[in-house]
Amino acid sequence: MSAGTGIYLYWIPLGAGGSGFVRFNGRAYERIEAWMERRPPLDLFHTALEVRLPEGRYVVETMWPSPDGEPQTRGVTVSGPVFSSLLSFTRLFRYEVRCWRDGMLPDASEAVGGPRLVTSDEVRARYLLSLTILVPPRTWGRDELGLGDMWNSNSVIAWLLARSGTPMDMVAAPDGGRAPGWDAGLATAGQRRSDVIS
């Protein structure tokens, strides 16, 4: 086993490195959620994984279909609709799950605390990579399970970690933050709800 082998989790502030549109909408969404739940607003995070193995590293993330080109060139394993399957004929309303060898992780430098080692188990890391072709292509932005939590990029990461058998009890968002969609991923993977809020 090479040094650094394992699964690393990135907690990237929502909208980091962007134009501000995603960050603004995220903050507005969180203010409404906080008001409805009678709690202070929290910082929102987008999660991604980096799997390091002796033969190379893999970026596992959920993104919009960009840039143009063949999906396999960026490691696409699954594609799903955004908001409605009726709109998924256009790239704007599709997302893709990537398992990209030596791929790019936008805004990785913005991740709070940098990459966090979740497990150094090489077998589990390889198993997680094999699961990326099995991610349920649920509709992004919809609460199809009636959990009060929508499916999104965090759901994909939570599902992969849980299904790979990675211990989840020590996984927590940075102080004062949360990862919307996490519960939807855990529930889809067959685990109990456990809000990732610190």
Any key phrases for this structure?
198 residues; seven-stranded mixed beta sheet; alpha+beta
Structure description:
It is a single chain. By secondary structure, this protein is of the alpha+beta class. It has one domain (6-188). The chain has helices at residues 21-37, 122-131, 153-163, 182-188; strands at residues 6-13, 43-53, 56-63, 76-81, 94-101, 116-119, 177-178. Strands 1, 2, 3, 4, 5, 6 and 7 form a 7-stranded mixed beta sheet that branches. α3 packs across α4. The longest helix has 17 residues, at 21-37. It is globular and about 50 Å long. 34% of the residues are buried.
Structural class: alpha+beta
What is the strand content?
A: 15-25%
Which whole number gives the mean pLDDT? 85
State the separation between the terminal residues, measured CA to CA.
Answer: 33 Å
Annotation field: number of helices: 4
Largest pleated sheet: 7 strands, mixed
How helical, in percent, are the residues?
Answer: 10-25%
**Unreliable stretches covering 5 or more consecutive residues:** 193-198
Overall shape = globular
DSSP, total strands? 7
Which series of helices and strands comes N to C?
A: EHEEEEEHHEH
